[in-house]
Design a protein that fits this description.
By secondary structure, this protein is α+β, with helices and mostly antiparallel strands. The protein has 3 domains: 43 residues, no CATH class; 79 residues, Helix Hairpins, CATH 1.10.287.90; 137 residues, Cupredoxins -  blue copper proteins (Immunoglobulin-like). It has 5 helices and 14 strands. The strands form 3 sheets. It has a 5-stranded mixed β-sheet with strand order 7-6-5-9-12. It has a 5-stranded mixed β-sheet with strand order 8-14-13-10-11. Helix 2 runs antiparallel to helix 3. The longest helix has 34 residues. It starts with 5 loop residues before the first strand and ends in a 17-residue tail after the last helix.
């Protein structure tokens, strides 16, 4: 269904239509269709109110990264903002140079062009300054890569196996295993509150807050990718190869991710749901899960362990 959000500013009406398209009506009645662009997107955000990232999930018209819920994601958000400042500064500098050239060195203002072929100072500057900028970018980049790849002593290990088109999760230390499948609309509506469409699952991952979780990732058929944006986690699940990553959730809540590698016709229906709970709630869930998801085969794979908040 097409959106009908609209607002007026100084005689200009901006209406958000379907497919990220906008109708702009000027005071004199002229109309035009403008496809998504920075100005139009910003206008639509103003019309619908602040669009801040919600914990654990992306929101419509969101401009920034999802709210961080782990130390690694904190670093990624900080680095993203640093790069944004650098890019904006470079863009404004180049824009200023272009304006100066157009104003001072056009044929009318400068009918006799200079015959200068080189300038040592300028040539040294445009070589050294980019190198300095790249070094400023590289140092924190290498540090963040090291933090992501250097897995600390884990409090909990989870093995995530990507299947076409669901996830199988194992807790090796506790000898439990279960399959996580996306909820259909009819199943979602039975829950209160219903989870987000295309993101809710029947059996979510459950982890305790403020604990280091090692995630071992593998593909059982084709290449998948395990990704949870709020934790700064994204790693390929490759058949025959065990990859590892980690996270430490610092806030309780429900966090969502998806398979991020094209893996077949139902690639879009492989959500990841992680519930971060208190240690007491985790102990309760684990006791229930050991009865329902035991690896000895006594528990059906479709059983659902209750998560008590």
């Amino acid at each position: 269904m097409a959106r009908t959000d609209a607002f007026k500013v100084e005689g200009v009406v901006v209406e958000a239509l379907a497919n990220q398209t906008y109708r702009v009506e000027l005071a004199n009645g002229h109309r035009l269709i403008a496809f998504v662009a920075a100005v139009a997107a910003f206008s639509a955000i103003l019309a619908t109110g602040p669009a801040f990232a919600a914990a654990g999930i992306a929101t419509p018209w969101q401009m920034n990264l999802q709210d961080s819920a782990s130390p690694v994601m904190d670093d990624i958000v900080w680095f993203h903002n640093l790069l944004l400042y650098i890019v904006v500064a470079i863009t404004l500098f180049v824009l200023a140079l272009l304006i100066i050239v157009m104003v001072r060195f056009n044929a009318k203002a400068n009918p006799v062009p200079t015959k200068t072929t080189h300038n040592t100072l300028v040539e040294v500057a445009w070589t050294v300054i980019p190198v300095v900028i790249l070094v400023v970018i590289a140092i924190p980049s290498f540090r963040i890569l090291f933090v992501q790849l250097n897995i600390p002593q884990a409090d909990l290990t989870i093995k995530a196996a990507g299947n076409q088109w669901n996830w199988t999760y194992s807790y090796p230390d506790d000898k439990i295993e279960f399959t996580s499948v996306m909820l259909q609309d009819a199943e979602r509506m039975k829950l209160n509150p219903p989870p987000p469409r295309l993101l809710g699952v029947d059996n979510p991952i459950v982890v305790p807050v403020n604990k280091v979780v090692r995630v071992q990732v593998i593909g059982s058929d084709v290449i998948h990718a395990f990704a949870v944006p709020s934790f700064g986690v994204k790693i390929d699940a490759i058949p025959g190869r065990l990859n590892e990553t980690w996270f430490k959730a610092t806030r309780e809540g429900v966090y969502y991710g998806q398979c991020s590698e094209l893996c077949g016709k139902d690639h879009a229906f492989m959500p990841i749901e992680v519930r971060v709970v208190s240690e007491q709630a985790y102990a309760t869930w684990l006791a229930d899960a050991k009865k329902k998801f035991a690896l000895d085969g006594s528990a059906p794979a479709t059983a659902v362990a209750a998560v008590k908040e």
